[in-house]
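Renewal narrative, Specific Aim 1. Our central claim is that a sequence can be written position by position from structural information alone. The example that follows is taken directly from our test logs and has not been curated for this report. It begins with the structure tokens describing the chain, in the order in which they were read.
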């Protein structure tokens, strides 16, 4: 068994995804999430993410760490660009860098993208961490009526 596995998001048990998206520590970092994440919202969420795969050929994955559901994320189209998203259960917050490195290899090594972006809520304390990874700040953007700080990482090749 691999330490970290990327699986189709539709293969994640809905109960696990609902639990993650209703976790108080996680919700604090998701300004677009409004209220309780219900079974109906989960199905709409999964349908929307599948449509990204159908339309663009890429989208978010579910993540397993040592065989256990850890969260979801990866690259997804956002405002015409490949944006890195990462939503992990607090039990797996220390795994973000390893997951990011695999996504970065996919983005630049396999997909040959010129750059990827990351959007963070303005109150997110880890913008320094993304800068250490080489992301460069850009102009803030608005998504779903919420402001986000935008950072870009260029393909090193």
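The sequence written for that structure reads:
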């Amino acid at each position: 068994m691999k330490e970290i596995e990327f699986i189709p998001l539709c293969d994640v048990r809905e109960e696990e995804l609902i639990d993650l998206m209703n976790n108080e520590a996680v919700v604090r970092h998701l300004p677009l999430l409004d209220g309780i994440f219900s079974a109906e919202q989960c199905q709409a969420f999964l349908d929307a993410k599948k449509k990204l795969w159908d339309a663009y050929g890429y989208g978010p994955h579910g993540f397993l760490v040592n065989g256990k559901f850890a969260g979801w994320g990866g690259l997804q189209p956002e405002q015409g660009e490949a944006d890195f998203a990462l939503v992990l259960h607090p039990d797996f917050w220390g795994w973000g860098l390893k997951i990011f490195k695999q996504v970065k290899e996919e983005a630049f090594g396999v997909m040959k993208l010129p750059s990827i972006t990351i959007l963070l809520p303005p109150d997110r304390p880890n913008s320094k961490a993304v800068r250490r990874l080489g992301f460069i700040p850009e102009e803030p953007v608005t998504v779903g009526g919420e402001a986000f700080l935008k950072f870009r990482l260029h393909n090193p090749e």
